Amino acid sequence: MPVVRAPTAEAAIQAVEACLNGGVRVAEITMTVPGAIKALEQVAGRFGSKMLLGAGTVLDAETARISMLAGAEFLVSPSLRLATIEMAKRYSKAIFPGALTPTEVLAAWEAGADAVKVFPCGNVGGARYIKSLKGPFPQIEMMPTGGVTLETIGDFFKAGACAVGVGSELVDGALMKEGRYGEIEERARQFLAAAAKARG
Prior knowledge:
By secondary structure, the protein is α/β, with parallel strands linked by helices. It is built from 9 helices and 8 strands. It has helices spanning 9-21, 36-47, 61-69, 82-90, 102-110, 127-134, 153-158, 173-177, 181-198; strands at residues 3-4, 26-30, 52-56, 74-76, 94-96, 98-99, 116-118, 142-144. Helix 1 (9-21) runs parallel beside helix 2, helix 1 packs across helix 9 and helix 3 packs parallel to helix 4.
């Protein structure tokens, strides 16, 4: 899943379009993007059912609600806030709250997470950490974010990840700044192929 952090709403929209052109039909626009709600509305309006659109860096229930009303079909957070999970469930939307420790991962799952975003995964062992968590928690769906590259994506799936979040390795800020969206499109193809290969 592309994690789209962009300098402007228009850059975010173009990055999502590049990912879609590269075959990736899901994307998360983070709330750190200036005009993020506007970007969500425009992407939802422009691409409709072609793209499964989510809002990222959702830190509270109020932002969750506004994001869903703008067209977000799922929510992603770097942290665990029970009120945010409750809001997502009220609107029947999927939510991937952030957690890191075993206690947080279990708390997120028991609170109703559709999958737990293990973040920042790369800083605490990457795929090895996911494998360690899956030992006691085989029933918990985990989506590692942080440290996912073309070289490591296969390791994350082998370790038991149900999905992965990919930030600057796919949606690179420098490429957006220079208008090189064709390269983001190509990276999307490469990540999609690597994920397909890793998943069998």
